Structure formats: structure tokens, C-alpha cells
Amino acid sequence: MKSIAVFCGANKGNQPWFEAATIELGHLMAQRGTRVVFGGGSVGLMGVLADTVLKAGGQITGIITRQLYGLELAHPGVKDMIVVESMSERRKLLIEGTDGIITLPGGYGSLDEHFEALTLAQLHQYKCPIGLLNVHGYYNPLLQMMDVMVENGFLREQNRLLCIDAPTIPLLIEKMEKYEHKAIDKWH
């Protein structure tokens, strides 16, 4: 995987393991020579990710809206910064041309990005692995909800499997590297 989109919070959360996992991922991406594409922010886990990748000599591209850029939230150390007009354009560019996606803990924005990617995968418009890092069980309720969606006939089991989850970065990367796109038709 030469390029990975990373979705993560504009806040750091209130537990130290969220930041620790972000730092671990940033170091690993730099070591592997994998370009990180992220939301462009200097705050929260986004800022931690960018700081780590930059300090480790890695490659990073930020994609940020003009509004957020105007609020001085763009990471000043990221030289490859793309400024767009809307969040929908940002979401599109975050994954365009990437070899996979990793969603770290985050809030509405991270989930919005994650579920748009899953929807595109379900529709065969994105065929790369989509990983969810379930640090300390942060995403357990979300994963349970996806299972409830399957149980109640709103999500096909095969499409549920489009969301690759793991509690650690090494395991998540291992699962993502073995991924083969097998989404089935949403309607049949």
C-alpha cells in the first residue's frame, strides 16, 4: 500500500491510548514509505498524525476546506496541502487514488468519512481495504450496530465484511493487506 487515507479526530479524546495509537501509525507509515493523506488539520489526532509523520521523515498530504483553512486550522508543516471548497469535495479527494483507508478514533467527521467510503465500496466505486482501528474497544458499539443491521436485513453480511476492524495497528495492516474486494449487489 503506497498511499493510505487516514480519518481521525480533530480532538485528541480523553484517553492516552488514542494519541499513542496515532503516533504508532504515523511512525509505521513513515517507516514503510507509505504516503498519508489526511484532513489537513493541526489540531487533535490529525495534528498528532501530521507531526509524527513529518518528524519521522514520511510523506503526507493534507486536504482541508477553505473554511477550516481560514480558521488557521491547517497544519503549517504540511507542504502538500490541498484547499477545497466543500466537505464533500474533501471526502472525495481524501480517498481518490489511495490504496486503503484507516479510520482512527474520532467523532462525526471521522464516521462520515468512514461510512462514505463503505458506501462507495458497497457500490463497487472503491475497491481498496477500509480499516477501522478499534483501540481499547472504542468502536465496539459501532461494530455491534453493524451486526444489528445485518440481523435486521438492512445490510448484507458480505457488505458488513467491507469494514475491516482490529484492536491493534499491526493486526489491522495485516488484515488490510490480505483484503480482496467482494462486495455484493446491495439490492439482490
Question: What value does the average pLDDT take?
Answer: 93
Low confidence ranges: none
Distance between the termini: 32 Å
Overall structural class, as computed from helix and strand content, comes to: alpha/beta
Number of domains: 1
Q: How many individual helices?
A: 8
Shape: globular
Name of the top-level CATH class: Alpha Beta
The CATH architecture term is: 3-Layer(aba) Sandwich
Here the CATH topology equals: Rossmann fold
Helix content range of the residues, please? Answer: 40-55%
Percentage beta strand = 15-25%
Secondary structure: elements and pairs:
Layout lengths: L2 E5 L8 H17 L2 E4 L5 H12 L4 E6 H5 L9 E5 L2 H9 L5 E3 L4 H15 L7 E4 L6 H12 L5 H4 L2 E4 L2 H9 L11
Parallel strand pairs: 1-2, 1-5, 2-3, 3-4, 5-6, 6-7
Helix pairs in contact: 1-2
Detailed description of the structure:
The chain has helices spanning 16-32, 44-55, 66-70, 87-95, 108-122, 140-151, 157-160, 169-177, and strands at residues 3-7, 35-38, 60-65, 80-84, 101-103, 130-133, 163-166. It has 188 residues and is an alpha/beta fold. The protein has one domain (3-177): Rossmann fold, CATH 3.40.50. Helix 1 packs parallel to helix 2 (44-55). The chain is globular.
